[in-house]
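User: structure tokens for this one?
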Amino acid sequence: MESRYITSAAKPEQLPEYELPEIAFIGRSNTGKSSLLNALLGRRNLARHGRTPGQTQMINFFGVNEKVILADLPGYGYNVARRDAAKHWQPMADVYVRRSNIVEFICLQDCRRDFQEMDLRLLFMLGRQLPVTLVLTKVDKISRNQLAKARKKLEAVLEENGIDYKNVIATSSQQNLGIEDLRKAVLDPYLTKAEPTD
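Assistant:
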């Protein structure tokens, strides 16, 4: 699998135009999004995280096998992030999620945390466009029994709030748990798609 950094966008007018399908990775700051992307792509430092959560306000785009684009969105919800940065980011997010070539929303959630109101609003909005894939991160931090309870609780909240979701996948980037499951569910359908013939 070949992956490469393509470009970054800080403003709506900087968003690149692609015909390829695009998969968006969205999550709160500190959910381990960059680590997950690196594990998914088998790279160590392709996707980089900022030293201060909530500071990075750009969307980073990566190409995989020249068949699919992965978009790494800034982490949201970190209360130390500058107010002017958050104010700047909202219009960008509103424009981004309406891109016609987005085929998947991958939403990350720390398995040790409950959904907050901001999470549910975002998930509901995205789920109205496409069923979301919920990725539980940092599962190595809790026991299997705790994970099973957390997963059941979060799935119940999704259903209670009428949020359309496709799948829930438990992962740990540190221990490479669930990464192959995520790769098969999210990347493989696009990477194994046959080229059109004349």
